[in-house]
Amino acid sequence: MLLGMLICFPVFYGLSMSVMPESEILAYPTKIIPTVVTFANYIQVIKTVPIFSFIKNSIFVSVCVTAGQIITCSMAAYAFVFFKFRYRNALFIAVLATMMIPGEATIISNFLTISSIGLTDTFAALMLPFLSSAMGIFLIRQFYLTVPKELKEAADIDGCGNFKFFTSILFPISSPVLSALAVYVVINTWNQYMWPLLVTNTPERRTVQIGISMLQFSEGISYGLVNAGCVLVLIPSIAFFVLGQRKMVSSLTAGAVKG
Predict the structure, then answer these.
(1) Which of 45, 108, 132, 168 has the maximal Cβ count within 10 Å?
(2) Where are the alpha helices (DSSP H) in the chain?
(3) pTM across the whole model
(4) pLDDT, tens digit, for every residue of 19-46?
(5) How far apart are CA 19 and CA 224, in angstroms?
(6) Which CATH architecture best describes the domain 36-252?
């Protein structure tokens, strides 16, 4: 409990600072709980930057990237589990090896590719490099390995092809692992900073993390203003995590108990 309180304290203090007047934030000794609660910082955030437009952009990009990863990763995992071809295991190891390459090592090549096809400052530039991932393929593949092979054999006997088996049988029963992947991808996409900063130039394409950084350069640094913006940005991601938490836990514990 003490460790949990220690971890949660910065979040609580940031929330407290977001409703403090500037005079109380800079007062000495430092105040943890405001004596006067004000929402002027939130109003100032809305006036300073188009924060709701940034949130809308981040939601759109996060949903599209998540949908793309669910489709591509589940199809790739299906091929690795249910198709037999030469060098299957070697190819899977090669896919996993890409997880050891830091994103900073590929960001320049990705930017050159995006700019060469004229997609800079577009939503497509924010999505394309992340529509598939080795982590998603690995996670879904491990789940598919727990599916009884007899289920696929029975489908083959009944004349059910690979595509119909995938869409009608396998995909619906994969909701726990797909939900876990969705939570993971949404949070990662929501928190991206360097890539959106690199490929977008106009406020109409900016995401929330860029919007928060813009608050630090608006007429000097106001700690209450920045913390109010952080709270507004945290609300959608926390809400999504709370909604998907049960599915995520159930997917991680699937197969842990036998019988």
Answers:
(1) 45
(2) 2-18, 22-25, 40-48, 51-82, 88-97, 103-116, 123-127, 134-144, 149-157, 162-164, 171-173, 175-190, 194-199, 208-215, 223-252
(3) 0.83
(4) 888 777 777 777 788 887 888 888 888 8
(5) 7
(6) Orthogonal Bundle (1.10)
